[in-house]
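Bench notes, afternoon.
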Amino acid sequence: MNRQTDDTSVSATEADRTAAEPADHESAETGAPAAPTGPADTAPDPGTGRRPPTGADEAAVTRVFGIRHHGPGSARSLRQALEEFGPDAILIEGPADADPLVGFVAADTMTPPVALLAYVPDSPARAAFWPFAVFSPEWQAMRYGADHAVSVRFCDLPAANVLAADDDARGDRSDPLAALASAAGYDDAERWWDAVVESVPDSAAFDAITEAMSALREDAIQTPHDDSPLPTGLPTASTADPDDAAPAPGSGAPLPVDPTIAPLVVDQHTLRREAYMRQVMRQTLKDGAKRLAVVCGAWHAPALTGALGPAAPDARLLKGLPKIKTALTWVPWTHSRLAAGSGYGAGVTSPGWYHHLFTETERPVARWLTKVAGVLRAHDLPVSSAHIIESVRLADTLAALRGRPLAGLSEVTEAVRSVMCGGDETMLRLVIDELVVGETLGGVPEDTPTVPLAADLRARSKTLRLKQEALARTVDLDLRKERDVERSHLLHRLRLLGVDWGTPTVGEVRNTGTFRETWTLRWEPEFEVRIVEAAVWGTTLRTAAEAKILDTASRDGVTVAELADALETALLADLGGATDGLITRLEAAAALDHDVTHLLGALPGLTRTLRYGDVRGTDTKALAHVADGLLVRICAGLPGAVTGLDTDAAEALRAQIDAAHTAISTRDDDHTTTEWLATLQRIADRDDVHGAISGRAVRLLCDAERIDDADSARRLAAALSVGNTPAAKAAWIDGFLGGRGLLLVHDRELLRRIDEWLRELTEDQFVATLPLLRRTFGSFESGERRAIGQALRDTGSAPAAATGATPIDPARGQAALRAAAAILGAAG
């Protein structure tokens, strides 16, 4: 077990940073019952195993069961202990203001893992989770209460107090199990607990664990009541005298102190929590409970055991606690979020293994290794029945050699690594990810209280048959079908609200049209908090998405490209209520923006929407006016914006020109295409433009058949003339070829010219232009490069077409001779 919060709460304020810390230190603890308060228990009924009811005049009996959160051995032992004790009231460590939610545990549709979510309505990002799995002792206590009609309440500090406190004030991160494991000779507290408790559940173990925790608390550091800095001289794990260490339970020997283990601390937050628990215990007994069971983290068990004493000191300790208005609900949780490595650590590194231990009581090792074989076979790895048999034998042998009654996770993992995986850590990682951690998403009843936005999502998901699942799956949507269009609208709206349930991806189905969308769906528990955060924008997904996108568009500094993207997203999400406002905002921003690159960046999105919008049945007529206005301003400003650019700026502008050309060609509007090609013609005719842009303009005009092959060859010859530098020539070729090598395969004259230019380069010129040339020719497909090489090998550079002798013009010759004579005469 890892250092986790004792109350298993997980802060959601840090959820988006994927490093959420628990609210305090103790989910790592194990359990133990306190000594009973009151007279000794009566013997259980031989037939039912339950204690007979106490009489009205009989003194109350209290049992404190210290447990480890999310421990299957603790859960099974606790269930057995409750059956033997027969309580008439149960108190569970958890936020006391969540009592109204306990009744949902009995619902058939409540399926763990689940979590209590507490949040501040005015600031939903300030939230905390209290997770429960089927193997959590607290969950089994709640199920016992539901099955036996026993009152169940939470007894820890209310969430209203927990969320009002600073994160740093929610307790330390000390780990009492690490001290116990070290005393037992283990370097891993998780494996020690697995070997000692989880593999051998026993209701009698509670007393021993409570005794151990009492010994640890005797030497723990207690912070001052005023939260001032610790005074000097307090013992720590590294300075305490080993002879003064607490004895191990039942041995009478002192616990050895490991200087590498952080000192155990009983801080003020812990003391206040325990004071509140005692207050709830007093009130429960005052209300008439005769057999009270208290289920808490084992670290707290010693503080709740025995006589409760006067209430005044506890009342003083709790006086003046900060408080804030909160809301609570149940939300689905996942096994991976119970694993400490996920960022939502709840103290269990192997939830899949623990779930197996709790649910499979007969031959758990053999059944587990059978599951492992199934996982490996699903990945096309050869695993036979013989592998399973040998793995079981090896795991049992390792357990016997180590003196353990049953093979634990370390033994079965070593058996899997050696026998099934052949020492391959990659194969073992598959087993750890899919089984040891696992991925199971719980469920909550539909009538669970929640914000209206979450209720709308739940209803829409049910209508559209989109199931929330923890494992990623790919969904192909056919936009010609009404249901798939509605699914697309839902997923786009959620992305606008920051809930990335679906991520657009490239599907396996080949498709060149616009009638298909492919999404990868995966539900994460933190989406529940994001939905609560998004509830400020509206009560339904549509109204909330419209409000948020309009708010984003109205902010200062938003660019034309960002507005165009927002408008395209609004149409994809079918946000008709936001479209008019976005178009108005886009027109105003475009009228004031004089940067051609901003306008170029906005044009492709608008043009795609104009071309494909009717596939979804959206009205795009209003966009035509905006797109045409952008194009007019681009065509007017682009010829002047292409001059005076360095290489990086020219290449960036070339990419924007490519995207705009593709979008305009796709739109297939004659007037728009004509205006655009005329602009490219003006750019191509200029001699003060960077080669990357002028070469690309010539290429695009050639592809559009606005200039013929002879004209393009003439322009190429001019670009490769002696008046240009090698770098300028290489940039022109890079712009002209544009990553399409087939042009050289089919146009032998073009291939000959480029080949001659390359062969004429001097060594210094070739070395200077080599990086750009490598990038140009390296962008070709491998098949294109092979075809170019084949063409040169088979036929060589094609010679120029034979032409007749150039006729001599005597008049021009005489003029040239007179000019030469004059020059030579002047020189003489």
